[in-house]
Automatic annotation (TrEMBL):
This is Periplasmic beta-glucosidase. NCBIfam families: PRK15098.1. Gene3D superfamilies: Glycoside hydrolase family 3 C-terminal domain, Glycoside hydrolase, family 3, N-terminal domain, Immunoglobulins. It is an enzyme of class 3 (hydrolase). Residues 1-23 form the signal peptide. It comes from candidate division Kazan bacterium.
Length: 741
């Protein structure tokens, strides 16, 4: 027992020292003076967050009377309180009726829009258009901030390699490089250049960390990954968010290699706060402090509070463990007062950055709220972002785009005239009635001579087939069939995982019946995750992946269907051939026995291919692009030189179009094995028919670095392959040698 206690108190000393260093360096005078005036109870109040009202986004906790608690200085932040008037009312209590008048932070899950709903984040990531992604976050911030919200629990930057996991819809897909770029863009969009302005909001990078690596793709499940995988795959988007200035981070629900993230001091104190120098604050996830009891890591609520505070969790969302136990823990010497002061300083500093000490009511403006929410400008931008997010997966014989003068179009399927699901999960204050459905979008796009026939065919889920015969009858009358199939919004998102990722219910059967009519069929998919699509990919001539596009679903899809816009999205995540391949991702390792189906003694399956159905980075266009052979500025690159990798891309088709030119590398031999490909750059370019553009990517030693056997980040000299192309599979290849230092 003894040596353990000595060890623990050594850890405690280190943490006390680093805590006071933090306080000395970051406290400004105003905050220092405020801190001096605060009682221990008031300090702990600042570390406490509750959900307001009945709009819960997690299991209900013990009921409290928020107004009374605010008055007593026992709340630092509320989540789920919205609306300029409501938040002003609550802020007035904090500012005018609590002893110290410290303003509240109002948090909400503004994940892909506030009232104007943009595509789900996975869809937006498919645009590979960082300025569009930034702009979408910007509009979300403008709307939310006008309605009293000054803190969003976004961006969710969890890498996801398992499509069963429902929260795959909320992030940017499987790749750490793309994930990091998108994380930066989203933080910039929410926070702008000046977090103190009344139209910017505080970002929160979540869920720290590796939440997406949930075993078996089941939400909240155990995560057990190597430290190398953690640092190389799961952490880069978080680091990027911290570098971009994200003011807050949120703990993940999961355990990571035996330690729940909320109690994981390595992650929070060591990596985030010390190595990365993060000076914002960390909030737990909903009740995740107390859930450490269920994990089997904490004895009771009091122990959980102690562990979370030692680990560096500054604010308690919804478990009320801090408010219940922290004062006692401090008085009994279990938690050093300096840790409380650090947490409070972090929270107050962020409140100051957000401008709350200058004007606590700057976010509560009913006039701005009326003027800005869902306005025409925001709608137009949402339509633009939505059409950029659409991915063309197949287009045999130029089935698409359709002629807007067609005589009769049959629009079939449970998502064709759906006024609910296209909003997707986490749709904040988005309202069903705001959705422009696909049916409406198509009717507005076609000529006045075109008849648009409609039938639902079947439900999204379930066994009912009563509508199917009618749908086939309708389909038979048309020149072309558009089948709008996929998932409901509740099939993805938190706690909504699927054990089968095919088209749900009887939808595949409906599609088969439509195809059997012999009419050309266009499949419009709406879904929150990759689906298994082997039959459609072999039998349906045109397939559009549209994700869940939000308010402007109909116009955006119609723009693409009828060729007003040329699709340019690329998959940010691999679409497996079959569920048995999952987890599947493009940046896998080589193994000692790589192979293809049917080869003996190889790393293959007996019954399905090894390759995915659609690879990461894949997406077609109505035009074609050709790539000239890769040119390197030199074949032997000195260690501190830059390798320039260029190609000239030409639009060889007859329509204007945008291409995402992607750069991948492979380190051919290293002291630890490296992935077969790693994305290291991309550029989205727009080309007129016949136009060419040279694209050059610069690679430095830093881009080639990885963690070696002792987990030191190094770049090892030797041979590297570089690949350039329009997806991760169909690429051109060249090679260079990096010379020793
Ligand atoms: C739990 C979710 O995991 C998290 O992402 C969200 O921000 C909180 N609930 C608050 O709604």
């Amino acid at each position: 027992m003894k040596p353990i206690r000595i060890f623990l108190s050594a850890i405690m000393m280190v943490s006390i020292l680093s805590v006071s260093v933090f306080a000395a360096q970051t406290q400004d005078r105003q905050i220092r003076l405020l801190l001096q005036r605060m009682t221990l109870e008031e300090k702990i109040g600042q570390l406490t967050q509750y959900s307001y009202g009945m709009d819960l986004t997690g299991p209900a906790g013990e009921p409290i009377k928020p107004e009374e608690e605010i008055r007593k200085g026992r709340i630092g932040s509320l989540l789920n309180a919205t609306g300029a008037e409501k938040t002003r009312e609550l802020q007035t209590i904090a500012v005018e009726e609590s002893r110290l008048g410290i303003p509240l932070l109002f948090g909400l899950d503004v994940i892909h829009g506030y009232r104007t709903i943009f595509p789900i984040p996975l869809g937006e990531a498919a645009s590979w258009d960082l300025s569009a992604i930034e702009q979408s976050a910007r509009i979300a911030a403008i709307e939310a901030s006008a309605a009293g919200v000054n803190w969003t629990f976004a961006p969710m930057v969890d890498i996801a390699r398992d499509p069963r996991w429902g929260r795959i819809m909320e992030g940017a897909g499987e790749d750490p490089y793309l994930g990091a770029e998108v994380a930066r863009a989203r933080v910039r969009g929410f926070q702008g250049n000046d977090l103190g302005r009344s139209d910017t909001i505080l970002a929160c990078a979540k869920h720290f960390a590796a939440y997406g690596a949930a075993q078996a793709g089941r939400d909240y499940s155990t995560v057990d990954i190597s430290r190398r995988t953690l640092h190389e795959i799961y952490l880069p988007p978080f680091k990027a968010a911290a570098e971009a200035g994200a003011g807050t981070f949120m703990n993940a629900f999961n355990e990571l290699n035996g330690i729940p993230c909320t109690g994981n001091r390595y992650l929070v104190r060591e990596v985030l706060k010390k190595r990365w120098g993060f000076d914002g604050f960390v909030v737990s996830d909903w009740d995740s402090i107390k859930e450490m009891i269920v994990h089997g890591f904490a004895e009771d609520g009091r122990h959980a509070a102690e562990l979370a505070m030692h680990a560096g969790c500054d604010m308690d969302m919804m478990s009320a463990a801090y408010i219940a136990h922290m004062a006692d823990l401090v008085r009994q010497g279990k938690v050093p007062p300096a840790q409380i002061d650090e947490a409070v300083t972090r929270i107050l500093s962020v409140k100051k950055r957000v401008g709350l000490f200058k004007d606590p009511y700057q976010y509560c403006s009913p006039e701005r709220e009326r003027e800005l929410l869902l306005n025409d400008k925001h709608q137009a931008i949402a339509r633009d972002v939505a059409r950029k997010s659409i991915v063309l997966l197949k287009n045999e014989n130029g089935t698409l785009p359709l002629d807007r003068d067609l005589k009769r179009i049959a629009l079939i399927g449970p998502l064709a005239d759906n006024q609910t699901d296209p909003l997707g999960s986490w749709s904040a204050k988005g309202e069903d009635k705001d959705i422009i459905t696909l049916r409406r979008g198509i009717m507005d796009a076609v000529s006045s001579n075109t008849e648009v026939l409609f039938a639902r065919g079947c439900d999204i889920d379930g066994e009912g087939t009563q509508d199917m015969a009618e749908a086939v009858r309708v389909a038979c009358k048309a020149d072309v069939i558009i089948a709008a199939l996929g998932e409901s919004k509740n099939m993805s998102g938190e706690a909504h995982c699927r054990g089968d990722i095919g088209l749900p219910g009887r939808q595949l059967e409906l599609l088969q019946k439509l195809q059997a009519t012999g009419k050309p069929v266009v499949l419009v998919l709406m879904n929150g995750r990759p689906l298994t699509l082997v039959w459609p990919s072999q039998n349906i001539p045109a397939i559009l992946e549209t994700w869940l596009l939000g308010t402007q679903t109909g116009p955006a899809i119609a723009d693409v269907l009828f060729g007003k816009v040329n699709p340019s999205g690329k998959l940010p995540v691999t679409f497996p051939y079959a569920l048995g391949q999952v987890p599947i991702f493009y940046n896998h390792k080589m193994t000692g026995r790589p192979g293809v189906k049917g080869q003996a003694y190889r790393s293959t399956y007996a019954d399905i291919p090894v390759e995915p159905l659609y690879p990461f980075g894949f997406g077609l266009s109505y035009t074609q692009f050709s790539y000239s052979p890769i040119r390197l500025n030199r074949a032997k690159v000195a260690y501190d030189e830059i390798a320039n990798v260029s190609t000239t891309v030409t639009n060889t088709g007859s329509r204007q179009g945008a291409e995402v030119v992607q750069l991948y590398i492979r380190d051919l031999k290293a002291s630890v094995t490296r992935p077969v490909k790693e994305l290291k750059g991309f550029s989205k370019i727009d080309l007129k028919p016949g136009e060419s553009r040279k694209v050059t990517f610069a690679l430095t030693a830093e881009d080639l670095a990885f963690y070696n056997q002792t987990m030191t980040k190094v770049t090892e000299p030797g041979k590297f392959e570089v690949f350039v192309g329009g997806n991760s599979r169909d690429v051109l290849k060249a090679e260079f040698t990096l010379l020793s230092k």
